[in-house]
Amino acid sequence: MKQYLALCQRIIDEGHWVANERTGKRCLTVINADLSYDVAANAFPLITTRKSYWKAAIAELLGYIRGYRNAADFRALGTKTWDANANDNAAWLANPHRQGPDDMGRVYGVQGRAWAGPDGQVIDQLKKVVDDLSQGKDDRGEIITFYNPGEFDRGCLRPCMHTHNFSLLGDTLYLTSYQRSCDVPLGLNFNQVQVFTFLALMAQICGLKPGKAYHKIVNAHIYEDQLALMRDVQLKREPFPSPRLLINPKIQSLQDLETWVTLDDFKVEGYQCHPAIQYPFSV
Ligand SMILES: Nc1nc(=O)c2c([nH]1)NC[C@@H]1CN(c3ccc(C(=O)N[C@@H](CCC(=O)O)C(=O)O)cc3)CN21
Ligand SMILES: O=c1ccn([C@H]2C[C@H](O)[C@@H](COP(=O)(O)O)O2)c(=O)[nH]1
């Protein structure tokens, strides 16, 4: 939690104002942030200086793991976070590749599970990594990347957290995740949960111990209409200790994640937080 607050404070102290054409808003911006999470110690990086809707963040992760491309499927899992990008973005609504209401296009999970190869083959990046790690193998290329410039025109948004690189040292699993663009008040609250949970889940289904997760962010920003709430409300609060994440131990395979797992299989223990803050969301 301290590293999150330190990043927010750094943006306020050192940030540069950058105009963003896509949203029409200005963002207070810094370049480069390195966060890390101790998954071995189960220090779940939930924001405590406001109420965090962590279940929605895990629902997003589950949707990516399942290769979903439709905001309705994400809603069925328990999150509305893709509704606006799928349905309220003028450029995407006018895009001939959009397949009707709620379609997000070939984003995140589609690239992770069904990357289109040059000869028509479908490449399942996640399954390759799970199969290798389950056999104790790390070929130094255990990478799942959603970043496919050849198909940017087929999706509603370019992936923000775009690459997850797993590593093995003995029977301990590590994760390094890369993010090109980060909405620190809203997105990072979710992305921290996702990096942590992705490592915890992969270790569990591959029969490994979780180690540390490293989260590398390039452009970290606060939108102009979020700034006062962050500076004058959230940053004035004292953080509480980290809670713990409990994952149903019956989750034992990728197939389990694809078929029966729901948000009821995740619990948070010891979460103490300050009241909710509603930050404006930019589409
Ligand atoms: N501008 C922007 N910021 C983002 O963080 C973001 C995007 N766009 N587009 C794609 C996804 C969608 N994400 C989202 C979307 C909405 C919330 C949000 O509204 N969160 C609220 C309430 C969540 C709830 O009630 O479930 C929050 O207070 O955290 C968070 C992340 C993250 N990504
Ligand atoms: O997982 C996510 C997804 C999105 N974001 C934020 C980062 C930016 O504020 C917007 C995306 O806009 P771009 O113009 O494509 O950079 O969404 C996030 O923080 N986390």
TrEMBL record:
Listed InterPro entries: Thymidate_synth/dCMP_Mease, Thymidate_synth/dCMP_Mease_dom, Thymidate_synth/dCMP_Mease_sf, Thymidylate_synthase
Keywords: Cytoplasm, Methyltransferase, Nucleotide biosynthesis, Transferase
SUPFAM superfamilies per the UniProt record, alphabetical: Thymidylate synthase/dCMP hydroxymethylase
Binding site for (6R)-5,10-methylene-5,6,7,8-tetrahydrofolate: 183, 282
Compartment(s): Cytoplasm
Record function comment: Catalyzes the reductive methylation of 2'-deoxyuridine-5'-monophosphate (dUMP) to 2'-deoxythymidine-5'-monophosphate (dTMP) while utilizing 5,10-methylenetetrahydrofolate (mTHF) as the methyl donor and reductant in the reaction, yielding dihydrofolate (DHF) as a by-product. This enzymatic reaction provides an intracellular de novo source of dTMP, an essential precursor for DNA biosynthesis.
Complexes and interactors: Homodimer.
Record's protein name: Thymidylate synthase
Gene from which this protein is expressed: thyA
